[in-house]
Input
Amino acid sequence: MAGYTKLNLIEDVDDSAPKFGMGEVLNAHFAREDIEAQKFGLSLQRLKPDQRMPFGHRHGEQEEVYVVVRGSGRLKVEDEVLELAQWDAVRVDAELVRNLEAGPEGLDVVAFGAPGVRDTEQLMNWWTD
Output
């Protein structure tokens, strides 16, 4: 074993969004297993221009960090809306409901979380104007 794993988050990790009926909104590459991570979760979320995630979500135990790598948009955390720009990083406590909305050029976010924690609660139609 080499002690490391190298992959391309777009080319080497499947896009999960279409199988969950969200292919029109985003591309979602969940890489924890592909990159053989033992102590963290990793994903690339690529929201298309002017699209919003169709649900809010929270976790029982898993805090997350979102890093904007391209574009701009907004992150709603509970009742607060944060403006996001390239290279902004936001850490969110596990129990807070949150999700993303892309600006006119789209929004690419790398998200980090806990390993193997599958404690997500989805709240459909949570973010309304």
The first strand starts at residue 26 and ends at 30.
